[in-house]
Amino acid sequence: MLHLRQITKRFGPQTVLQGIDLDLGPGEFVSLLGPSGCGKTTLLRIVCGIESADLGQVLMQGQDITAWPASQRRFGVVFQSYALFPNMTALQNVCYGLSALPRREAAERAAEMLALVGLLDQAGKFPAQLSGGQQQRVALARALAPKPRLLLLDEPLSALDAQVRQELRAEIRALQQRLGITTLMVTHDQDEALAMSDRVVLLAKGQIAQQGAPRQLYQQPANALVAGFVGRMNWMDGQVIAEGRVRVGTTMLDADTRVYKTGSVVRVGVRPEAIRLLDGEGAMIRARVDALQFHGAVTQVQLRCDALGATLSLELPSGEAAGLTEGEVRGLRLPAAAVQLFDAPLSMRRAA
Ligand SMILES: Nc1ncnc2c1ncn2[C@@H]1O[C@H](COP(=O)(O)OP(=O)(O)OP(=O)(O)O)[C@@H](O)[C@H]1O
User: Fold this and answer.
1) Which CATH architecture has domain 232-351?
2) Where does the ABC transporter domain start and stop, copy by copy (predicted)?
3) Which atom of ligand 1 is nearest to the CA of 51?
4) CA distances from 268 to 35, 181, 332 (A)
5) Structural element, H or E, at residue 173
6) Each residue of 124-171: pLDDT tens digit?
């Protein structure tokens, strides 16, 4: 459907995008995720046609559209700031992109789109009379009304409060699937990317660090950068001391060491949900409960573990955490499958 070939973009001396290759299949929902400044908005703007690449090509359904102006691409775009015309009603806003249609047909189509986003009863209101979530729904209806070939979403939910965001997340995804429209979304919110997408593309320093299904990125991160950005990770320093064994602090842990030679200095990552809490008595690894932070359904637990030389963070259902008190000592189990090894930074390897 959409193919990006070797997209490169510089702003002055700064290379913002470096040879990006990306393919979107029909009906696919792909998120561009990455830290601030990694170039994701610039890439979306290049796809959109409001920014041009220094090198590379944008192909849509086999056609080279690199030099086409935005207006000819027939893409629908939704921005973070709703970008509605304040002096037009919701219906007029949605009609705006339908000028090619006879007036009555345009009004019918706009009403149909407003019904699709659940706002037909608000059609006569002006943007200032609508909530943020409603305005963003109108913006979505406006983007979809001309039956675009591609839907581009630029941080569409980040101006909304948490609850509306959750609702709209599900609504946008359901609508996208129902219409089968190929969609590219920019977000810096990993939860959003994981929850909404068929595929997540993680950008870092202008390059694709990894792309794959949300579950794949979470469970098989290609490197420490991806592991740290997608989901939470407890980090420790370690050294592979034998096949299947890594030393962390003064503790020997079982781990899959296959890609590392004995003696390698590594970063050791453990997902919070993989840590098992046990009774303190007789446990191999002991840790002190340093802090408990109540978040409603779950409680964040900080554990100081001298044997690992680390403070670990995990999340427990609050019912389970109710039995914990600050200062008490518990046991820890880190199953081998939970202990993930990554390349240590060069400085750490040199120091070793
Ligand atoms: N028109 C411009 N002129 C000069 N530099 C720019 C321009 N647009 C973007 N940049 C720079 O390019 C880099 C990438 O910007 P971009 O907006 O694509 O990042 P991003 O990943 O979307 O970040 P954020 O999530 O903060 O929006 C940044 O360092 C930014 O300052």
Assistant:
1) Beta Barrel (2.40)
2) 2-230
3) 1
4) 22, 40, 16
5) helix 162-179
6) 999 999 999 999 999 999 999 999 999 999 998 888 888 888 888 999
Whether residue 82 is predicted with pLDDT greater than 80 in this model: the reply is no
Mutate to test the pocket of ligand 1, among 17, 18, 41 (most ligand atoms within 8 A of CB): 41
Strands (DSSP E) contained in 54-204 are: 55-60, 63-64, 75-78, 150-154, 183-187, 199-204
Mutate to test the pocket of ligand 1, among 8, 11, 189 (most ligand atoms within 8 A of CB): 11
Q: Is 148 in the pocket of ligand 1 (CB under 6 A)?
A: no
Cβ(165)–Cβ(157) below 8 Å: yes
Average pLDDT for 77-105: 89
Q: List the one residue out of 208, 232, 225, 222 whose CA is nearest residue 30.
A: 208
Predicted confidence (pLDDT) at residue 17 exceeds the cutoff of 90: yes
Nearest 5°: CA angle at 158, between 235 and 211?
A: 50
Edge-to-edge order in the sheet of strand 329-333: 276-278, 329-333, 285-294, 298-305, 310-317
pLDDT in tens, 39-61: 999 999 999 999 999 999 999 99
Tell whether the model's pLDDT for residue 251 goes beyond 70. Answer: yes
Judge residue 100's burial from the number of C-beta atoms within 10 Å of its C-beta, 0-12 exposed, 13-18 middle, 19 or more buried.
exposed
Q: Which CATH architecture has domain 2-225?
A: 3-Layer(aba) Sandwich (3.40)
